[in-house]
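Worked example 3 (structure in, sequence out).
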């Protein structure tokens, strides 16, 4: 199920074992018309491929009416009184050399259906049917694993996208500070910020030599002691970027180089000046008001922000009244919440 194309080796072996011209596996979710069909065998001639797409649209055989785990023959699937099905047989199947078929339906508890078929001439008989019957429990297990794997892939993709929008990610390091694995968007963070980069031999290399030495010593200590205390490292104040490094407790992961530490990286892709410009656009603040609002959102008091921005406390208080009026905030705590939960968090 992890092959590309999916199940290619299995279908090739099934075709060889059964002696059939074609071996196919089709997926059809119960509540969807979407069809995924995989097969092993000679390629379909272009004129027959065009005929199938133009006239039949999709395989007209009544797969959904098949009982689960029961093997059907071609004659059992084709209704003698159905002109479409008989035309499909005469115009498409027989020119491909398909006069016999054995097909079985397997259902996965989540609702995914699969149909395993062997098709060809006289060689497709009762022995092929017995082979498909024997494969049913194994295919059911494989199908269940495939559905679970696809679900986890989707969840991983959603989580990765959320991490990226929040400018948060993680990477694992071996004892030599080489990157073993990481969330996909961190590569973009490396290129954008230059505070961290993937160095020679995939080594995580901070731009600051002092941080590089600190990180190297920290990872070495984690390699020796998996119960060591995690440590936070500030990489930049503007734009803000922090890293929390901790030892990995469970080192039974399968990898070429076993990870000993995991680093959680959180940062802002925008500078303070950029954020102030965005507050001007979002709330209609003046540049001076935006600078004060951003300082307050970073946890400063009015007096601390005034000193940092070179304002008097009285001027800062006047600015804050205008900020509250324009944003609709009823106090400092609500202003912080408005700013940090606004679209700026996704910018």
């Amino acid at each position: 199920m992890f092959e590309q194309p999916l199940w290619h080796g299995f279908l090739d072996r099934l075709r060889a074992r059964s002696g059939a011209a074609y071996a196919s596996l089709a997926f059809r979710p119960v509540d969807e018309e979407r069809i995924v069909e995989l097969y092993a065998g000679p390629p379909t001639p272009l004129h027959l491929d065009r005929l199938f797409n133009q006239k039949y649209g999709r395989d007209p055989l009544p797969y959904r009416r098949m009982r689960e785990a029961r093997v059907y023959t071609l004659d059992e699937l084709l209704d003698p009184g159905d002109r479409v099905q008989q035309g499909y047989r005469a115009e498409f199947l027989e020119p491909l050399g398909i006069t016999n078929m054995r097909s079985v339906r397997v259902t996965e508890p989540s609702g995914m259906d699969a149909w395993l078929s062997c098709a060809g001439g006289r060689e497709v008989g009762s022995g092929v049917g017995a082979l498909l019957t024997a494969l049913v429990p194994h295919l059911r297990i494989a199908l269940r694993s495939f559905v679970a794997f696809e679900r986890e892939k989707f969840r991983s993709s959603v989580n990765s996208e959320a991490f990226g929008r929040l400018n948060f990610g993680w990477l694992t390091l071996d004892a030599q500070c080489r990157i073993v694995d990481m969330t996909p968007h961190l590569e973009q963070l490396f290129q954008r910020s230059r505070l961290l980069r993937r160095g020679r031999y995939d080594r995580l290399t901070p731009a600051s030599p002092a941080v590089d030495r600190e990180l190297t010593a920290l990872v070495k200590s984690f390699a020796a002691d998996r119960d060591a205390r995690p440590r936070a490292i500030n990489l930049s104040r503007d734009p803000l970027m922090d890293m929390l490094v901790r030892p990995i407790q469970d080192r039974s992961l399968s990898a070429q180089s076993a990870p000993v530490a995991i680093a959680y990286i959180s940062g802002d892709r925008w500078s303070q000046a950029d954020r102030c410009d965005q507050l001007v656009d979002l709330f209609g603040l003046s540049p001076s008001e935006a600078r004060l609002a951003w300082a307050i959102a970073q946890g400063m008091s009015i007096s601390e922000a005034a000193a940092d921005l070179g304002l008097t406390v009285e001027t800062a208080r006047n600015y804050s009244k205008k900020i509250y009026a324009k944003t609709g905030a009823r106090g400092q705590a609500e202003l912080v919440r408005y700013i940090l939960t606004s679209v700026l968090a996704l910018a």
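Notes: The CA atoms of residues 102 and 129 lie 6 Å apart. The mean pLDDT is 86.
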